[in-house]
Amino acid sequence: MEKQSVKGYEIAQKKSLSGDIEEIQFKIHSTIGVNPKQKKIVLGLIAFFGIIFSFFFAFFIPFFLIVFVLVLNAQTITVNKKSLEIKNSIPVFPKTNMNIENIDHFEVKRIETRNKEGKTMVTFQLVAFFKDHTNKKIYNSPNMELVDKMDKIIENFLKITDETNEKQLDQLSTSNLERDLKDEHIVEETLGNIDTSIPSKDYPFSLKSDLISVKVTYFSKFNQKSLGLFLIIFGLVFSIGSVGLFSPIGIPLFIWGLKKTLNKQYVLAYSNKLTYVTKPISLKKEKELLKSEIKSIEVIPSNVRTNGVMSFHLVANTNEGKKIKLISHVFNVIALRDIANKINNRLGLDNT
């Protein structure tokens, strides 16, 4: 069996007497991506500190045991012409076996999560897609190159044609936010199976288009209803419960909640201009921008997160370098990009 060792894992190929590859095996030495020698050192350190801490604080014992087991466990993924097997060195972790005939193709997904400190943690998943339209996670790792290599080697071995492999590594290197804002095909790919004819959480817009104009209505209640109701209740309780003492704080919160629950944002685009306004609770009047003043319409991050989720603004970039907000704080960036494309098309501007 021919072997190729890389930091943290090993790739082996079993060949027949004629030289054809019969089996491919990926052996991942540990979840933390170290080689066997480094693994022994890490396990030794975990055991050393685990014994010391556990001697004084017994509640540390389960924590160190879990960490020790996760680092100790090695995973082997074996692929031949009939099956794909996932086996762990520690029996407590389940063994998985799946029929190759049922697999249509493989994909690598970039998974982004945020911790309590607000830092983004990135991992990559190798996912098998089956002919019955179901899918199953095969492997998960922060090592992008390893998961990408798994995908390409397995598909090549099984003679699965996948045109996305050529640009896959570049796409995986791009953050989900950047891809959502720049990928030319993501709008049609994402909205293809969503009913955009009625406002919903997936598409919180009403769109009316004719030969003269495109009218867009953003229903913020689909994105901010829970927050709006909380502010309404909190504002009322704060004002009434304090017998008016804290009304200067409670009333603005109550009004803010009403705005998030009841307000709609409107954009009306013609071939030569657009207008925008927020109603019914707003002191700002309807404003107008001429096409000659607009360089482009685009979606930008608001840099404000609610429960860890970023919201986005639809802005008009003017020839003077200003960014004028037309629609604000939308969580569904793909739907908002679709709106930007439609307004750009009506104005005869390039999509950005």
Uncertain residue ranges: none
User: Which geometry do the CA atoms define?
Assistant: globular
Count of DSSP-assigned helices? 9
DSSP E strands, number: 17
- State the secondary-structure class: alpha+beta
Looking across the biggest beta sheet, what order are the strands in?
1-2-3-4-5-6
- Profile the largest sheet: 6 strands, antiparallel
State the share of residues found in helices, binned by percent.
25-40%
The average pLDDT score comes to 83
According to CATH, what is the class of one domain? Answer: Mainly Beta
CATH-derived topology of one domain: PH-domain like
Radius of gyration: 27 Å
Strand composition percent: 35-45%
Helix/strand order, N-terminal first: EEEHHEEEEEEHHHHEEHHEEEEEEH
Distance between the termini: 51 Å
Assembly context of the chains: single chain
Query: Can you name the CATH architecture of one domain?
Result: Roll
Descriptive account of the structure:
The protein is α+β, with helices and mostly antiparallel strands and 352 residues long. The protein has a domain at 191-220 and 263-347: PH-domain like (Roll). The chain is built from nine helices and 17 strands. It has helices at 36-56, 61-72, 144-157, 165-173, 176-182, 186-191, 221-241, 247-262, 333-347, and strands at 2-6, 9-15, 21-28, 75-80, 83-88, 96-99, 103-114, 120-130, 135-141, 205-209, 214-219, 264-269, 273-279, 287-290, 294-306, 309-318, 323-330. A six-stranded antiparallel β-sheet has the order 1-2-3-4-5-6, covered by helices on one side. A five-stranded antiparallel β-sheet has the order 10-11-12-13-14. Strands 7-8-9 form a three-stranded antiparallel β-sheet, with helices on one face. A hairpin with a 2-residue loop joins strand 1 and strand 2. Helix 7 (221-241) runs antiparallel to helix 8 (247-262). The longest helix has 21 residues, at 36-56. The protein is globular and about 75 Å long.
